[in-house]
Amino acid sequence: MLHSVGIVGTGSYVPEKVLTNADLEKMVDTNDEWIVSRTGIKERHIADPETPVSELCYQAALKALEDAKVAPEDVDLIIIPTVTADYLFPSTAGLVADRLGAKNAAAFDLSAGCTGFLYGITTGAQFVSTGMYRTVLVIGAETLSKILNWEDRSTCVLFGDGAGAAVLQPVEEGYGFLGFELGADGSGGHLLTCLGGGSKNPASIESVQNKLHTIRMAGSEVFKFAVRIMGDASFKVLEKAGLKKEDIDLFIPHQANLRIIDSAVKRLGIDPEKVVVNLDRYGNTSSASIPLALDEASRGGRLKYGDNLLMVGFGAGLAWGATVLRWAKR
Ligand code: COA
Which domain holds residue 86? Predict the structure, then answer.
Protein backbone atom coordinates (compact mmCIF):
# COMPACT_ATOMS: atom_id res chain seq x y z
CA MET A 1 0.00 0.00 0.00
CA LEU A 2 1.19 3.52 -0.73
CA HIS A 3 -0.19 5.02 2.50
CA SER A 4 -1.22 2.80 5.41
CA VAL A 5 -5.01 2.83 5.82
CA GLY A 6 -7.02 1.72 8.82
CA ILE A 7 -10.42 1.80 10.48
CA VAL A 8 -10.56 4.80 12.80
CA GLY A 9 -14.21 4.63 13.89
CA THR A 10 -17.18 2.27 13.88
CA GLY A 11 -20.92 2.47 14.49
CA SER A 12 -23.95 0.24 14.18
CA TYR A 13 -27.70 0.31 14.40
CA VAL A 14 -30.53 -2.22 14.41
CA PRO A 15 -34.28 -1.57 14.32
CA GLU A 16 -36.03 -1.86 17.67
CA LYS A 17 -38.48 -4.63 16.79
CA VAL A 18 -37.25 -8.14 17.71
CA LEU A 19 -38.62 -11.27 16.05
CA THR A 20 -37.91 -14.38 18.12
CA ASN A 21 -37.94 -18.02 17.07
CA ALA A 22 -41.15 -18.38 19.10
CA ASP A 23 -42.71 -15.63 16.94
CA LEU A 24 -41.68 -17.53 13.81
CA GLU A 25 -43.29 -20.71 15.13
CA LYS A 26 -46.61 -18.88 14.74
CA MET A 27 -45.85 -17.89 11.14
CA VAL A 28 -44.36 -21.02 9.50
CA ASP A 29 -43.95 -24.71 10.30
CA THR A 30 -40.74 -24.43 12.31
CA ASN A 31 -39.55 -24.56 15.91
CA ASP A 32 -36.95 -22.99 18.16
CA GLU A 33 -35.05 -26.27 18.57
CA TRP A 34 -34.60 -26.70 14.79
CA ILE A 35 -33.51 -23.09 14.22
CA VAL A 36 -31.05 -23.01 17.14
CA SER A 37 -29.50 -26.42 16.46
CA ARG A 38 -29.18 -25.89 12.66
CA THR A 39 -28.17 -22.22 12.68
CA GLY A 40 -27.44 -20.84 16.17
CA ILE A 41 -29.98 -18.02 15.63
CA LYS A 42 -32.37 -17.13 18.48
CA GLU A 43 -33.78 -13.79 17.38
CA ARG A 44 -33.37 -11.07 14.77
CA HIS A 45 -34.30 -7.39 14.40
CA ILE A 46 -36.86 -6.35 11.80
CA ALA A 47 -37.49 -2.88 10.35
CA ASP A 48 -41.00 -1.40 10.32
CA PRO A 49 -42.73 -1.36 6.92
CA GLU A 50 -42.13 2.40 6.63
CA THR A 51 -38.40 2.25 7.52
CA PRO A 52 -36.04 2.06 4.51
CA VAL A 53 -32.44 0.89 4.65
CA SER A 54 -31.19 4.49 4.35
CA GLU A 55 -32.55 5.17 7.85
CA LEU A 56 -30.46 2.31 9.29
CA CYS A 57 -27.43 3.59 7.35
CA TYR A 58 -27.89 7.11 8.68
CA GLN A 59 -28.08 6.00 12.31
CA ALA A 60 -25.00 3.74 12.03
CA ALA A 61 -23.06 6.45 10.16
CA LEU A 62 -23.76 9.08 12.84
CA LYS A 63 -22.23 6.79 15.46
CA ALA A 64 -19.21 5.90 13.32
CA LEU A 65 -18.45 9.54 12.52
CA GLU A 66 -18.75 10.45 16.20
CA ASP A 67 -16.46 7.56 17.14
CA ALA A 68 -13.88 8.68 14.55
CA LYS A 69 -14.35 12.37 15.51
CA VAL A 70 -14.98 13.22 11.87
CA ALA A 71 -17.42 15.93 10.71
CA PRO A 72 -19.80 14.98 7.86
CA GLU A 73 -18.33 17.65 5.58
CA ASP A 74 -14.89 16.04 5.92
CA VAL A 75 -16.06 12.75 4.40
CA ASP A 76 -14.68 12.37 0.83
CA LEU A 77 -16.52 9.22 -0.22
CA ILE A 78 -19.47 7.15 1.01
CA ILE A 79 -19.79 3.53 -0.14
CA ILE A 80 -22.90 1.56 0.80
CA PRO A 81 -22.73 -2.18 0.17
CA THR A 82 -26.32 -3.44 0.17
CA VAL A 83 -28.72 -5.72 -1.72
CA THR A 84 -31.74 -3.91 -0.26
CA ALA A 85 -31.19 -0.32 -1.43
CA ASP A 86 -34.05 2.15 -1.00
CA TYR A 87 -34.48 2.27 -4.80
CA LEU A 88 -32.90 0.88 -7.98
CA PHE A 89 -31.75 4.49 -8.26
CA PRO A 90 -30.87 7.05 -6.98
CA SER A 91 -28.22 5.36 -4.86
CA THR A 92 -28.80 4.95 -1.15
CA ALA A 93 -25.30 6.38 -0.63
CA GLY A 94 -26.40 9.66 -2.24
CA LEU A 95 -29.49 9.85 -0.03
CA VAL A 96 -27.45 9.16 3.11
CA ALA A 97 -24.77 11.70 2.14
CA ASP A 98 -27.48 14.33 1.80
CA ARG A 99 -29.07 13.44 5.15
CA LEU A 100 -25.70 13.50 6.93
CA GLY A 101 -24.74 16.82 5.37
CA ALA A 102 -21.70 15.19 3.75
CA LYS A 103 -21.63 17.89 1.08
CA ASN A 104 -18.15 17.11 -0.17
CA ALA A 105 -18.55 13.36 -0.54
CA ALA A 106 -18.77 11.25 -3.68
CA ALA A 107 -21.24 8.42 -3.11
CA PHE A 108 -22.17 5.05 -4.58
CA ASP A 109 -23.76 1.72 -3.66
CA LEU A 110 -22.01 -1.60 -4.13
CA SER A 111 -23.55 -5.02 -4.82
CA ALA A 112 -21.62 -8.02 -3.52
CA GLY A 113 -24.21 -9.81 -1.39
CA CYS A 114 -23.12 -10.79 2.10
CA THR A 115 -19.49 -10.07 1.13
CA GLY A 116 -20.46 -6.45 0.50
CA PHE A 117 -18.75 -4.90 3.53
CA LEU A 118 -15.44 -6.60 2.74
CA TYR A 119 -15.68 -5.48 -0.90
CA GLY A 120 -16.60 -2.00 0.38
CA ILE A 121 -13.67 -1.53 2.76
CA THR A 122 -11.26 -3.03 0.23
CA THR A 123 -12.49 -0.53 -2.37
CA GLY A 124 -12.51 2.39 0.06
CA ALA A 125 -9.00 1.60 1.28
CA GLN A 126 -7.60 1.89 -2.26
CA PHE A 127 -8.79 5.51 -2.49
CA VAL A 128 -7.13 6.39 0.81
CA SER A 129 -3.99 4.41 0.01
CA THR A 130 -3.40 6.29 -3.25
CA GLY A 131 -4.01 9.64 -1.56
CA MET A 132 -7.02 10.47 -3.72
CA TYR A 133 -9.24 10.67 -0.63
CA ARG A 134 -8.49 11.06 3.06
CA THR A 135 -11.77 9.90 4.64
CA VAL A 136 -14.05 7.13 3.35
CA LEU A 137 -17.24 6.02 5.10
CA VAL A 138 -18.37 2.45 4.36
CA ILE A 139 -21.83 1.41 5.57
CA GLY A 140 -22.92 -2.22 5.22
CA ALA A 141 -26.68 -2.24 5.68
CA GLU A 142 -29.69 -4.40 4.89
CA THR A 143 -33.42 -4.63 5.37
CA LEU A 144 -33.62 -8.24 4.21
CA SER A 145 -37.00 -8.61 5.94
CA LYS A 146 -38.44 -6.68 2.97
CA ILE A 147 -37.32 -9.26 0.40
CA LEU A 148 -38.02 -12.44 2.35
CA ASN A 149 -40.76 -14.88 1.47
CA TRP A 150 -42.41 -15.14 4.88
CA GLU A 151 -44.03 -18.42 3.82
CA ASP A 152 -40.70 -20.12 3.07
CA ARG A 153 -39.39 -21.59 6.33
CA SER A 154 -36.06 -22.55 4.74
CA THR A 155 -35.10 -18.88 4.30
CA CYS A 156 -37.28 -16.60 6.46
CA VAL A 157 -35.82 -17.89 9.75
CA LEU A 158 -32.25 -17.07 8.73
CA PHE A 159 -32.08 -13.35 8.06
CA GLY A 160 -32.38 -10.03 9.90
CA ASP A 161 -32.04 -6.27 9.43
CA GLY A 162 -29.24 -3.96 10.57
CA ALA A 163 -26.41 -1.62 9.64
CA GLY A 164 -22.72 -1.29 10.51
CA ALA A 165 -20.38 1.51 9.49
CA ALA A 166 -16.63 2.08 9.44
CA VAL A 167 -14.57 5.21 8.82
CA LEU A 168 -11.31 4.68 6.90
CA GLN A 169 -8.39 7.11 7.12
CA PRO A 170 -4.59 7.08 6.85
CA VAL A 171 -2.92 5.51 9.90
CA GLU A 172 0.67 5.13 11.03
CA GLU A 173 2.90 2.85 8.97
CA GLY A 174 2.73 -0.84 9.84
CA TYR A 175 -0.86 -0.48 11.08
CA GLY A 176 -4.21 -0.76 9.35
CA PHE A 177 -4.86 -3.11 6.44
CA LEU A 178 -2.14 -5.70 5.90
CA GLY A 179 -3.81 -7.76 3.16
CA PHE A 180 -6.95 -8.21 1.08
CA GLU A 181 -8.45 -11.21 -0.67
CA LEU A 182 -11.53 -10.97 -2.90
CA GLY A 183 -13.11 -13.50 -5.23
CA ALA A 184 -16.24 -14.38 -7.16
CA ASP A 185 -17.56 -17.46 -8.96
CA GLY A 186 -20.60 -16.54 -11.03
CA SER A 187 -21.21 -20.17 -11.98
CA GLY A 188 -22.74 -20.52 -8.51
CA GLY A 189 -24.81 -17.37 -8.81
CA HIS A 190 -28.08 -19.32 -9.17
CA LEU A 191 -27.67 -20.81 -5.67
CA LEU A 192 -28.66 -17.60 -3.86
CA THR A 193 -30.88 -15.14 -5.69
CA CYS A 194 -33.50 -12.41 -5.75
CA LEU A 195 -34.55 -12.44 -9.42
CA GLY A 196 -37.34 -9.88 -9.74
CA GLY A 197 -37.31 -6.15 -10.37
CA GLY A 198 -34.19 -5.97 -12.52
CA SER A 199 -33.84 -5.87 -16.32
CA LYS A 200 -34.23 -9.63 -16.77
CA ASN A 201 -37.51 -9.87 -14.84
CA PRO A 202 -38.90 -6.33 -14.58
CA ALA A 203 -41.63 -5.87 -12.00
CA SER A 204 -44.94 -7.18 -13.33
CA ILE A 205 -48.07 -8.74 -11.92
CA GLU A 206 -46.61 -12.16 -12.80
CA SER A 207 -43.22 -11.44 -11.22
CA VAL A 208 -44.93 -10.47 -7.98
CA GLN A 209 -47.34 -13.42 -8.07
CA ASN A 210 -44.37 -15.76 -8.59
CA LYS A 211 -42.55 -14.10 -5.65
CA LEU A 212 -39.54 -13.29 -7.81
CA HIS A 213 -38.75 -10.32 -5.56
CA THR A 214 -37.85 -12.58 -2.65
CA ILE A 215 -34.74 -14.49 -1.62
CA ARG A 216 -34.33 -18.06 -2.88
CA MET A 217 -31.50 -20.23 -1.71
CA ALA A 218 -30.13 -23.74 -2.20
CA GLY A 219 -29.12 -23.89 1.48
CA SER A 220 -27.00 -27.02 1.58
CA GLU A 221 -25.05 -26.03 -1.59
CA VAL A 222 -24.30 -22.59 -0.14
CA PHE A 223 -23.36 -24.27 3.13
CA LYS A 224 -20.71 -26.47 1.43
CA PHE A 225 -19.30 -23.49 -0.48
CA ALA A 226 -19.17 -21.39 2.69
CA VAL A 227 -17.32 -23.98 4.73
CA ARG A 228 -14.68 -24.39 1.99
CA ILE A 229 -14.22 -20.72 1.14
CA MET A 230 -14.00 -19.40 4.73
CA GLY A 231 -10.87 -21.46 5.31
CA ASP A 232 -9.36 -20.97 1.83
CA ALA A 233 -9.81 -17.17 1.82
CA SER A 234 -8.49 -16.84 5.37
CA PHE A 235 -5.32 -18.83 4.64
CA LYS A 236 -4.72 -16.80 1.46
CA VAL A 237 -5.08 -13.42 3.14
CA LEU A 238 -2.88 -14.46 6.07
CA GLU A 239 -0.18 -15.45 3.60
CA LYS A 240 -0.50 -12.11 1.78
CA ALA A 241 -0.18 -10.29 5.11
CA GLY A 242 2.83 -12.40 6.13
CA LEU A 243 1.03 -13.62 9.25
CA LYS A 244 0.32 -17.02 10.78
CA LYS A 245 -2.95 -18.11 12.36
CA GLU A 246 -1.26 -17.79 15.78
CA ASP A 247 -0.80 -14.07 15.12
CA ILE A 248 -4.57 -13.46 14.97
CA ASP A 249 -5.96 -11.76 18.08
CA LEU A 250 -9.56 -11.49 16.93
CA PHE A 251 -11.54 -13.27 14.20
CA ILE A 252 -14.77 -11.81 12.82
CA PRO A 253 -16.45 -14.20 10.39
CA HIS A 254 -19.65 -13.43 8.45
CA GLN A 255 -22.54 -14.32 10.76
CA ALA A 256 -24.65 -16.70 8.67
CA ASN A 257 -24.67 -19.97 10.55
CA LEU A 258 -22.91 -21.09 13.73
CA ARG A 259 -22.03 -24.45 12.18
CA ILE A 260 -20.24 -22.67 9.29
CA ILE A 261 -18.34 -20.49 11.78
CA ASP A 262 -17.42 -23.48 13.97
CA SER A 263 -16.07 -25.46 11.03
CA ALA A 264 -14.00 -22.49 9.82
CA VAL A 265 -12.61 -21.94 13.32
CA LYS A 266 -11.69 -25.62 13.58
CA ARG A 267 -9.99 -25.68 10.18
CA LEU A 268 -8.08 -22.46 10.87
CA GLY A 269 -7.09 -23.66 14.32
CA ILE A 270 -8.07 -20.37 15.97
CA ASP A 271 -8.83 -20.29 19.71
CA PRO A 272 -12.67 -20.07 19.98
CA GLU A 273 -12.21 -17.32 22.62
CA LYS A 274 -10.89 -15.09 19.82
CA VAL A 275 -13.99 -15.48 17.65
CA VAL A 276 -16.77 -12.89 17.59
CA VAL A 277 -20.25 -14.43 17.38
CA ASN A 278 -23.45 -12.40 17.61
CA LEU A 279 -25.73 -14.15 15.12
CA ASP A 280 -27.82 -15.53 17.99
CA ARG A 281 -29.18 -11.98 18.44
CA TYR A 282 -29.23 -10.69 14.85
CA GLY A 283 -29.45 -13.62 12.41
CA ASN A 284 -27.73 -13.16 9.08
CA THR A 285 -27.75 -9.43 8.30
CA SER A 286 -25.78 -9.88 5.06
CA SER A 287 -23.47 -6.92 4.39
CA ALA A 288 -24.22 -5.53 7.88
CA SER A 289 -23.09 -8.66 9.70
CA ILE A 290 -19.32 -8.08 9.86
CA PRO A 291 -19.42 -4.32 10.64
CA LEU A 292 -22.11 -4.92 13.27
CA ALA A 293 -19.88 -7.50 14.96
CA LEU A 294 -16.84 -5.24 14.50
CA ASP A 295 -18.57 -2.32 16.20
CA GLU A 296 -19.65 -4.50 19.12
CA ALA A 297 -16.11 -5.88 19.46
CA SER A 298 -14.54 -2.42 19.35
CA ARG A 299 -16.97 -0.83 21.80
CA GLY A 300 -16.87 -3.92 24.03
CA GLY A 301 -13.11 -3.56 24.48
CA ARG A 302 -12.25 -6.72 22.56
CA LEU A 303 -9.87 -4.85 20.21
CA LYS A 304 -6.68 -3.27 21.53
CA TYR A 305 -4.21 -1.04 19.71
CA GLY A 306 -1.88 -3.30 17.71
CA ASP A 307 -4.20 -6.33 17.66
CA ASN A 308 -4.31 -8.35 14.43
CA LEU A 309 -7.88 -8.72 13.21
CA LEU A 310 -9.02 -11.22 10.57
CA MET A 311 -12.40 -10.74 8.88
CA VAL A 312 -13.83 -13.17 6.33
CA GLY A 313 -17.14 -13.42 4.50
CA PHE A 314 -19.03 -15.11 1.66
CA GLY A 315 -22.40 -14.92 -0.02
CA ALA A 316 -24.44 -14.27 -3.15
CA GLY A 317 -22.43 -14.06 -6.32
CA LEU A 318 -21.08 -16.43 -5.23
CA ALA A 319 -18.54 -14.02 -3.82
CA TRP A 320 -16.07 -14.10 -0.96
CA GLY A 321 -13.60 -11.82 0.74
CA ALA A 322 -11.13 -11.61 3.59
CA THR A 323 -8.91 -8.96 5.09
CA VAL A 324 -6.34 -8.68 7.85
CA LEU A 325 -5.66 -5.45 9.66
CA ARG A 326 -3.59 -4.29 12.59
CA TRP A 327 -5.90 -2.26 14.82
CA ALA A 328 -4.73 1.37 14.81
CA LYS A 329 -7.36 2.89 17.09
CA ARG A 330 -6.28 3.78 20.62
N1 COA B 1 -37.78 -25.38 10.38
C2 COA B 1 -37.92 -26.71 10.40
N3 COA B 1 -37.48 -27.50 9.41
C4 COA B 1 -36.87 -26.90 8.37
C5 COA B 1 -36.69 -25.53 8.30
C6 COA B 1 -37.18 -24.76 9.37
N7 COA B 1 -37.05 -23.41 9.40
N8 COA B 1 -36.06 -25.22 7.15
C9 COA B 1 -35.85 -26.38 6.52
N10 COA B 1 -36.35 -27.40 7.23
C11 COA B 1 -36.34 -28.82 6.93
C12 COA B 1 -36.20 -29.10 5.46
O13 COA B 1 -37.46 -29.02 4.84
C14 COA B 1 -35.64 -30.49 5.46
O15 COA B 1 -36.69 -31.40 5.64
P16 COA B 1 -36.73 -32.79 4.83
O17 COA B 1 -35.47 -33.50 5.23
O18 COA B 1 -37.98 -33.42 5.34
O19 COA B 1 -36.74 -32.39 3.41
C20 COA B 1 -34.78 -30.53 6.70
O21 COA B 1 -35.20 -29.43 7.51
C22 COA B 1 -33.30 -30.43 6.44
O23 COA B 1 -33.08 -29.38 5.54
P24 COA B 1 -31.66 -29.01 5.04
O25 COA B 1 -31.75 -27.90 4.07
O26 COA B 1 -30.91 -30.25 4.62
O27 COA B 1 -31.02 -28.53 6.42
P28 COA B 1 -29.56 -28.05 6.69
O29 COA B 1 -29.01 -28.79 7.83
O30 COA B 1 -28.76 -27.95 5.43
O31 COA B 1 -29.81 -26.57 7.19
C32 COA B 1 -29.67 -24.32 6.42
C33 COA B 1 -30.42 -25.62 6.34
C34 COA B 1 -30.33 -23.34 5.47
C35 COA B 1 -29.72 -23.78 7.83
C36 COA B 1 -28.21 -24.56 6.00
O37 COA B 1 -28.17 -25.27 4.79
C38 COA B 1 -27.43 -23.30 5.82
O39 COA B 1 -27.19 -22.57 6.77
N40 COA B 1 -26.94 -23.03 4.60
C41 COA B 1 -26.14 -21.87 4.33
C42 COA B 1 -27.04 -20.71 4.28
C43 COA B 1 -26.30 -19.42 4.29
O44 COA B 1 -25.35 -19.24 4.97
N45 COA B 1 -26.82 -18.51 3.49
C46 COA B 1 -26.41 -17.18 3.47
C47 COA B 1 -25.20 -17.00 2.67
S48 COA B 1 -24.65 -15.39 2.90
Answer: 5-174
Strand partners, 180: 323
Q: How many domains would you assign to the chain? A: 2
Residue among 84, 76, 7, 4 at smallest CA distance from 284: 84
Same structural domain for residues 128 and 72?
Answer: yes
**Which value, in Å, is the radius of gyration of the alpha carbons in the chain?**
19
- Is the bond preceding residue 90 a cis peptide, omega within 30 degrees? yes
Catalytic residues: 114, 254, 284
Give residue-wise pLDDT tens across range 253-311. Answer: 999 999 999 999 999 999 999 999 999 999 999 999 999 999 999 999 999 999 999 99
CATH code of the domain in which 185 resides:
3.40.47.10
What are the pLDDT digits (tens) for 216-256? Answer: 999 999 999 999 999 999 999 999 999 999 999 999 999 99
Residue 227 Cα to ligand 1 midpoint, Å, equals 15
Q: In angstroms, how far is CA 284 from the centroid of its own chain?
A: 9
The per-residue pLDDT for range 186-221, each reduced to its tens digit, is 999 999 999 999 999 999 999 999 999 999 999 999
284 CB within 6 A, ligand 1: yes
d(CA 118, CA 81): 9
Please tell me the distance between residue 207's alpha carbon and the centre of ligand 1 in angstroms: 25
| Cβ 264 vs Cβ 237: under 8 Å | no
d(CA 79, CA 165): 10
**Domain boundary at 174, 190, 211, which?**
174
